[in-house]
Amino acid sequence: MQVKNIAIMGAGLVGSLLSMYLKKHGYQVTVYERRPDFRKTGNYGGRSINLAISERGWKGLQGVGLEQAVRDIAIPMPGRMVHDVQGNLMFQPYGKPGEAINSVSRGGLNILMIDAAEEAGVTYKFNQRINEINPAGTAASMEDMESGTTYTLELDLIIGADGAYSLVRYAMLKTDRFDYSQAYENHGYKELTIPAGPNGTFLIDRDALHIWPRKQFMLIALPNIDGSFTCTLFFALEGRESFEAIKTHADLDAFFDTYFPDVKPLMPTLHEDFFGNPTGLLMIVKCFPWSHGNTMLIGDAAHAIIPFYGQGMNCGFEDCTVLNDLIEEFNHDWSKIIPAYQVARKPNSDAIADLAKLNFIEMRDLVADADFQFKKRIAAKVAAAYPDKFIPVYSMVSFSHLPYADALREYYRQDEVLSEVLTWPGVREHWDTELLPDIAQRLFNL
């Protein structure tokens, strides 16, 4: 399978990163995007959910020389700050000292990456929509959305990096033996804002992911380098307490006065944001195979997940680094690269989708739960005492390159062990002294 000319459909984060890896290997790469160039329109807000970069993401950026540039616009968050209804705060570290996830604006990061890709020689074409792909995957029928004209692209390889609602994947749906599922959550999301204080000051702690867990819904806030916070309300779409039920400004005030009284005074544009910004939907996509002929999928086009482990972008970037390694391993033989890529990534993308769903329950319902907090303290203590023998699941996902599938298996195993430990006599008084070695042995999975 000789490949020289590659089209990437989608100018988002994964498509832009992949374009730079492919360009480094000497391929002719053109990126096609159906949206206008948002560097010119400035239209990227309203549904953006700040991103949390962790180790897998940094590795992807490092491979194309962008790690430091992105660190310059990111804010480390070493833990989550939990806000209860009374306004009390509790800080929960994500990992060991020095470990942090990093908040960055999706739009700002995407612009940085497109600029870098163009500087590397990648061609971007905006306002271009894919209509159809031929059965061999070597030609695409395209539409220029500005002029309304259609044209055909003849290509060696088409890569769909066009997100959860991928048109490339839609074309593959029409092929034989293509398994596909999509599942929407009953919750949606709305972007809100805490603006910067005087002189760009942060009105709440900048060094944390803030979370207001309220059982069936939650609010989160991630810091931006200008002193503001991008907030996201995850809320039921329908029902007694839902987006559907909040119809007036009075409804919104009553809801925030009841559940988020400490943050409401920090949101002067709450009404404009809530009623002006769209309600985003949350969807999980699983499919296989990720290729047909000379067409393949990557990132959300292959495995869209919900955003509750902060791993959607990180997983997509890991797709790119795995694919890059396979290009080198198989010396540009795409007849071997593509099968190896999808077999390697499919179990892990399924696993992080399941982990993200579990973490939504954790963030929304459990972070303020006493037993949950106790389990986290035990896991952190064992990890600190025996770092070469035990890694908590969150650290496996966010601060390592261990397979997501391994982390999912460990999630269930560690939770089973810790739930049993909580039943031990005297454990709450002596867990971190004489009982710690016994607990550690149970957690080592020997």
Alpha plus pi helix count: 16
Compute the number of strand runs: 19
Number of domains: 3
Radius of gyration computed on alpha carbons: 23 Å
Instruction: List the strand order in the largest sheet.
Output: 6-5-14-15-16-13-17
Mean pLDDT over the full residue set: 93
* Overall 3D shape: globular
CATH architecture of the largest domain: 3-Layer(bba) Sandwich
Percent helix range: 25-40%
N-end to C-end Cα span? 45 Å
CATH class identity of the largest domain: Alpha Beta
Condensed summary:
The chain is of the alpha/beta class and 446 residues long. It has 16 helices and 19 strands.
Written overview of the protein:
This protein is of the alpha/beta class and 446 residues long. The protein folds into three domains: 5-78 and 104-182 and 285-358, FAD/NAD(P)-binding domain (3-Layer(bba) Sandwich), CATH 3.50.50; 184-281; 369-443, no CATH class. The chain is built from 16 helices and 19 strands. A seven-stranded mixed sheet has the order 6-5-14-15-16-13-17. Helix 1 packs parallel to helix 10 (312-329), helix 3 crosses helix 10 (312-329) and helix 11 (334-366) packs parallel to helix 14 (404-421). The two termini are 45 Å apart. The mean pLDDT is 93.
